[in-house]
């Protein structure tokens, strides 16, 4: 097994990481920079996970020390950060870190990231000359292609042309969890087929684990037992499914799926080839989507700065600026201004029980619902991991209460297939500026936040309106 060095002063972080890596890797621990360097030189780990919360020690400087030392410069290093440490993450990446993940730790994502960084040159040594020619040609074409759909078509065309697969498809899972074939060598151009995830356990497995899935002898594979009657036509074939994940909030979730008669070493070769294609595709798709958006929206860069990447709602920095403006306007024109704080109930349990992918889908669905419900003059922002805040200009307390009731009802009706029927509820706090009852937007926000916590303590799935 590979050796992973965990560098953290936090006992809880080390314990969580050890639990996630148990049985997959050998774990070495260090609680300081000096101890970490000594352990690295002694044990020569294959990968380092560095917690950015190192007390008085500068994590970027620790990272730079690892990357400048001859004994450790070649070792992949992953940063472990809090969600709000953007500047620290940037400094760490500039110092030489190879990747980062955020707390709370998702064990599946952690293992997937580690697997990616531990692949060595020898891992891909059994690729054939035709494979390399296909990869070079693929890189050459898609690196200059700016149409995401065209990139998908090129990928399936090249893989099916250069390899012995009977079918090569790219499947996308949208915000609602719907499955669709968006490119395939046996589909007409621009044709799209929707699928039922229950009929494709291999894709569901790759979605949950974020890892490649290689299946041989489909008829006897336990993963396919539930759909055995539906795969009789390919029962003697092999399937490889590889996630295409590159900044998931930008390009969505895609899977490269191939069906062939390859077995044993040949199937494993196809798995490795598909992983390379997936990595190449992820980068090209990200660039293409960004370019396409830039072409259609000249304010793309400004939008990226003020929008939350997962939900598309405004981020809290922009929210503060707009809240101050709206409060000043309400003061000037003596008009009401309501603030609504929304928090998803027991969201940690959702993540712990169903995984962060399901949790993200729930957050995105609620965000989409809020956007559809609000007026153009209203402002919706993602305030924290599972918190939302609304600014409602010219809305009095009674109107705000009515809107809050609609929000609660609509959230209860939100359906996320990955939650398997688990209902989502929210707690809502309301505060309204009227007749100079608050002296600043900060005070109004504070009382709306406090009202939300009163709703929580009252049993959740409820509304509390502060006087």
Report on the structure:
By secondary structure, the chain is of the alpha/beta class. The protein has helices at residues 11-21, 33-43, 59-68, 86-94, 107-118, 129-142, 148-162, 201-209, 248-251, 264-296, 300-306, 316-333, 347-354, 356-373, 397-412, 441-457; strands at residues 3-7, 26-30, 47-51, 77-81, 99-102, 165-173, 179-184, 193-195, 213-215, 238-244, 253-260, 337-344, 379-382, 387-393, 426-433, 463-465. The protein has three domains: 3-118, Response regulator (Rossmann fold), CATH 3.40.50.2300; 124-295, GAF domain (Beta-Lactamase, 2-Layer Sandwich), CATH 3.30.450.40; 304-465, Reverse transcriptase/Diguanylate cyclase domain (Alpha-Beta Plaits, 2-Layer Sandwich). It contains 16 helices and 16 strands. The chain has a six-stranded antiparallel sheet, sandwiched between helices. Strand 7 (179-184) and strand 8 (193-195) form a beta hairpin.
């Amino acid at each position: 097994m590979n050796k992973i060095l965990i560098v953290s002063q936090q006992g809880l972080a080390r314990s969580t990481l050890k639990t996630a890596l148990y049985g997959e890797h050998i774990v070495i621990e260090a609680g300081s920079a000096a101890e970490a360097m000594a352990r690295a030189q002694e044990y020569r780990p294959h990968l380092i996970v560095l917690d950015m919360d190192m007390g008085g020690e500068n994590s970027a400087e620790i990272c730079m020390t690892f990357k400048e030392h001859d004994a450790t410069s070649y070792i992949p290093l992953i940063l472990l950060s809090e969600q709000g440490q953007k500047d620290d993450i940037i400094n760490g990446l500039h110092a030489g870190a190879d990747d980062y993940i955020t707390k709370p730790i998702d064990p599946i994502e952690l293992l997937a990231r580690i697997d990616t960084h531990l692949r060595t040159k020898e891992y891909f040594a059994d690729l054939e000359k035709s494979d390399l020619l296909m990869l070079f040609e693929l890189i050459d074409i898609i690196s200059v292609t700016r149409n995401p759909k065209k990139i998908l078509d090129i990928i399936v065309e090249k893989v099916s042309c250069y390899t012995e697969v009977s079918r090569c498809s790219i499947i996308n899972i949208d915000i609602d969890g719907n499955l669709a074939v968006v490119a395939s060598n046996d589909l007409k151009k621009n044709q799209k087929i929707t699928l039922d995830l229950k009929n494709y356990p291999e894709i569901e497995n790759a979605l949950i684990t974020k890892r490649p899935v290689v299946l041989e002898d489909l008829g006897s594979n336990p993963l396919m037992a539930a759909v055995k009657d539906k795969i009789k036509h390919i029962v003697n074939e092999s399937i490889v499914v590889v996630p295409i994940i590159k900044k998931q909030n930008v390009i969505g979730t895609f899977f490269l799926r191939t069906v062939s008669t390859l077995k044993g070493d040949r199937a494993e070769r196809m798995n490795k080839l598909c992983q390379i294609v997936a990595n190449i595709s992820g980068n090209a798709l990200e660039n293409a989507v960004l370019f396409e958006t830039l072409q259609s929206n000249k304010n793309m860069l400004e939008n990226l700065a003020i929008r939350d990447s997962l939900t598309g709602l405004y981020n809290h920095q922009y929210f503060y600026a707009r809240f101050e403006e709206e409060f000043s306007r309400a003061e000037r024109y003596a008009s009401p201004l309501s603030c609504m704080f929304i928090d998803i109930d027991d969201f940690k349990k959702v993540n712990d029980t169903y995984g962060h992918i399901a949790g993200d889908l729930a957050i995105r669905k609620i965000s989409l619902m809020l956007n559809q419900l609000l007026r153009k003059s209203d402002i919706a922002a993602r305030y924290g991991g599972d918190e939302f805040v609304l600014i409602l200009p010219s809305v009095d307390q009674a109107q705000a209460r009515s809107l809050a009731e609609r929000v609660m009802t609509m959230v209860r009706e939100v359906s996320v297939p990955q939650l398997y029927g688990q209902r989502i509820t929210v707690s809502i706090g309301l505060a309204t500026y009227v007749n100079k009852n608050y002296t600043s937007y900060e005070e109004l926000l504070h009382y709306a936040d406090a009202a939300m916590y009163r709703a929580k303590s009252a049993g959740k799935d409820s509304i509390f309106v502060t006087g």
